[in-house]
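does this look right to u?? 4'-deoxy-4'-aminopyridoxal-5'-phosphate version
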Amino acid sequence: MSTDRVPVRDNLVDVEPYGAPQLDVPVRLNTNETAEAPPAGYLEEVARRLQSLALHRYPDRDHVDLRAALARRHGVDPSQTWAANGSNEILLQLLQAYAGPRRRVAMFRPSYSMYPELCRTAMSEVVAIDLDDAFQIEPEATIAALVDSGPHVVVIASPNNPVGATVAPEIIVDIHDQTSALIVVDEAYIEFAGPGASVVDRVADLQRLVVVRTFSKAFRLAGLRLGYLVAPDWVVNDVQKVRLPYHLDALKQVAGMVALEQESHFLEHRQRIVAERQRMAAALRGMAGVEVFDSSANFLLIRTSHPELFGALLKQGVLVRDFSSAPRLAGCTRITVGTREENDALLAAMKSVIEA
Ligand code: PMP
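got this back:
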């Protein structure tokens, strides 16, 4: 018997492809990119280096030069680094290697909404542990839940998305020491947090710790799709068992290396973003009925009782991220910190909507 369609895998039947709306509006504050373009001279240098690429050959499968540069950045051995197409691909590779069917992945709720999606793709079971009402980890209850559920992987976002809060390194150490899981700390926004927030230096002494980073946020290269991990070398060996051959194209390897060489120029805008975050938080807190969560990232989570905030802001040309129907996030909206002008537009639109 012949049919004209093949049914999609059972756990994909009702799935909508993941992604925030990509709308052409004047002020786009919905995907936590950095508002400022890469520094002057970056694209010219990348273009210059591309001239000598042998594009008729496959790229360096092990991206040795890029990993050496990442290793220098973090004071580790190159065998402890690994890059992929965005930190999302890094996370997927970790789940493919360590989670998968009949294995469990613990994560917090609320946290980055891609984690359950990645688990579905990797066919792993999700163990969701609720944060408290201020969206902080409750250490004792968390350890108890982890000991009870015995996950193979624990994913912790610090700063957490969409909340913005960092997780204290002592809590991460405790979770590591009290479980036998791979502890994956997703530091996508760490460059916006204060000193001492990262646990990347602890990879040296915590045996099962993996730190995941991205070029999409403070490195101003969301369009490049480049992320990486710092981990014990056995993790890098295992991840290579699931990676596609030549997954990281030659152009991207060069673009990443040039960005690392120009790191100080790339990251120089952080203070402006942090200052704008503080200015926006204060202004939003001054609006009646708006609750603002503390953030160490380049975005703010707010809660209001306005039923149609997302649509009302969009009517004024401001695109934000609506979380109101996500678990535990009723009334919540996430706002990326943009340029001063974009932030002014957001604040003006918020004011008019809230006061209406
Ligand atoms: N982790 C977190 C917490 C994020 O918010 C994001 C992007 N929104 C990512 C990972 C993925 O980033 P990318 O794939 O662009 O590196």
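The pocket of 4'-deoxy-4'-aminopyridoxal-5'-phosphate is lined by residues 32, 86-88, 112, 157, 161, 186, 188, 214, 216, 222, 227 (CB under 6 Å). idk if thats expected tbh
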